Amino acid sequence: MSRAVVFAYHNVGVRCLKALIGRGVEVALVVTHRDNPNENIWFASVAQVAREHGIACITPDDPNAPEVVEQIQACQADFLFSFYYRHMLKAPLLAAAKRGAYNMHGSLLPKYRGRVPINWAVIHGETETGATLHQMNVKPDNGPVVDQMAVPILPDDTADEVFAKVTVAAEMVLWRSLPGLIAGNAPHLQQDLSLGSYFGGRKPEDGRIDGTAPAAQLHNFARALTRPFPGAFADTTAGRLLLWKTLRAGIAAPAARAELYSAESRLWLRCADGGRLAVLEAELDGQPLTADNFAERVAADALAL
Question: How would CATH label the architecture of 3-199?
């Protein structure tokens, strides 16, 4: 029986941990994060899965601390796996597993290396993304690829909807890769890093809308940042506007900056390129903004972003 140490968090962490257990891998230790009380915890708990299966679980602030590395080394694991764990694992940890360290990444590597790859893919209007299992080294997301699976991004998919697809793809990739990893004959294909780029993390402030952007870009931005994420926002003369749900809806007269207005019992966003978005859900200063209350809340014919 193969033995593993698992660093994991989030839904991908839960499903991949369950896949390891389902394949009969002995999980000696789970390393996860303590939930941040200031974060919207909308995802499942890796720690709960570990408790249910009687697996030892730790939540160190620094996984690379010497005492944690010693604990991992003492597990004498064949494999180390990282499934949506948020901290970088340094060389001593990666060397602690006799047969290698492997990471599940939420993109089709080498595209979208780095942080929050699903949100970045939606922001850039990609039509597909996926999950990739790759061997880890000291540089993020650039080790040899074992396997990957693509999923479609439909024109109106939100990042949350895409994440659900990627979670299933991650589970399937790991499930079908484990026999080869255990047998020692899994493929390891070097990445051509010139075919992709590295992206950093995102903060709530990064959701600020560019009022001069074309309609397609604004639609992608809104659906990439909608719930459970902090949202795409603009500070306007009437207060802070949040766009939670939009649809592309033909053309309108171009505006110097995107303008929100009410017509035909619906909110619309007239964009700088002449494109138009139907705004199906919006919020102004923490309260719902609708076609019915637009005139009362905004006190103008249109609201510039």
Answer: 3-Layer(aba) Sandwich (3.40)
- Contact between 260 and 279 under an 8 Å Cβ cutoff? The reply is yes
Per-residue pLDDT, 47: 98
Query: Rounded to an integer, what distance in angstroms lies between the CA atom of residue 16 and that of residue 30?
Result: 12
Tokens for 282?
């919006």
Three-class SS state of 99:
coil
The pLDDT score that the predictor gives to residue 304 is 95
Roughly how many angstroms between the first and final C-alpha of the chain, as a whole number? 59
Domain residue extents for the chain: 3-199, 205-304
The answer to whether the peptide bond before residue 110 is cis (omega within 30 degrees of 0) is yes
Helix, strand, coil distribution of the chain in percent, nearest 5: 30, 30, 40
Other Cβ atoms less than 10 A from the Cβ of 75: the count is: 18
Q: Please indicate, yes or no, whether the overall pTM of this predicted structure exceeds 0.90.
A: yes
DSSP class of 189: B
